[in-house]
Automatic annotation (TrEMBL):
Residues 22-139 form the DUF4123 domain. This is DUF4123 domain-containing protein. It comes from the Bacteria. It comes from Pseudomonas helleri. InterPro entries: DUF4123.
């Protein structure tokens, strides 16, 4: 439902006795996070990536925060800048905060090992696309304990209600993972995820790269190279990025480029083997 402003939704949820929570993408919003967490008890916020297989990314991942009456200033700052894609708002029953945390933790990873990826549910654009494409009966499994959500979509504010709030099992084929993502946005998501991964796991080498080249230009180049080679799996892009970071020029050796008539899977396996050999010799 289209809203004249998110304030209308906030007032309506509070009149119904619901607690309001903020789903915050903390990566570019650290000052807001620090303001909100100051003097807040630990049972009123949670880093969603903690206690999951990607706990090492908890510091740059989304936070779920129960809002208090004193949060007017930081909340107003966020509501006045929807173009920053900081996340979205959700209303729940007072006792359902732990259940909501667990609900989204169960939906963080998508796919099967070793090609699992991170589902960016905290991005308002991802949430909006999913809700606009699924039938109402699919919403409970997606929204879980949430009674309603409020999010920006382009220039408008929208809300979506959940007709059956509660704990729901993860479907075998979730509707929200079948939503087609525009190629340009898919590319931006992959670059952002790669940027966060390198900061979390290879910070020293990545910062050295930033002294010589624009990180996002470099990421864009490497992503385009991986796609051109048919390396579409997350682990393949990860290998290319990490291997490139370990060289003085931040580019993998020319002999690791594909050979004529070499299939993408053959190419990847060959390069992996060559990398292991170099590591064994102490070269890479």
């Amino acid at each position: 439902m289209k809203l004249p402003s998110p304030v209308q939704w906030i007032e309506a949820q509070r009149k119904r006795g619901h607690e309001l929570c903020l789903m915050l993408d903390t990566f570019d919003h650290k000052p807001v996070l620090q303001t909100l967490l100051k003097d807040r008890t630990h049972d009123r916020y949670s880093s969603l990536y903690s206690q999951t297989p990607i706990a090492e990314l908890a510091g740059i991942g989304p936070f779920l925060i129960m809002l208090d009456s004193g949060d007017t200033q930081p909340l107003t700052e966020l509501l006045n800048s929807p173009e920053r894609h900081w996340g979205w708002l959700v209303s729940i029953a007072a006792q359902d905060f732990p259940a909501l945390v667990q609900h989204w933790r169960e939906r963080i990873l998508v796919g099967q090992r070793p090609d699992q990826g991170i589902y960016r549910f905290h991005d308002n654009r991802v949430l909006g696309r999913a809700l606009s494409s699924m039938p109402p009966e699919a919403r409970p499994a997606y929204l879980g304990p949430a009674h309603s959500v409020c999010y920006a979509q382009g220039e408008h504010w929208l809300s979506a209600d959940n007709r059956a709030p509660g704990q729901h099992p993860l479907p075998e084929q979730p509707h929200w993972l079948q939503v087609p993502v525009p190629p340009e946005q898919r590319a931006r998501i992959r670059e952002t995820n790669a940027h966060r991964f390198l900061l979390a796991h290879h910070q020293v080498a990545y910062l050295q790269l930033a002294e010589h080249r624009d990180p996002f230009d470099w990421l864009r180049l490497q992503r385009g190279r991986a796609e051109g080679w048919g390396w579409h799996a997350p682990r393949q892009l990860e290998f290319l990025l990490v291997s490139s970071l370990s060289t003085p020029e931040f580019e993998i050796p020319m002999q690791w480029h594909p050979r004529v008539y070499e299939e993408p899977s053959e190419h990847f396996e060959r390069v992996c083997q060559e990398a292991k050999l170099l590591q064994g010799k102490g070269i890479a």
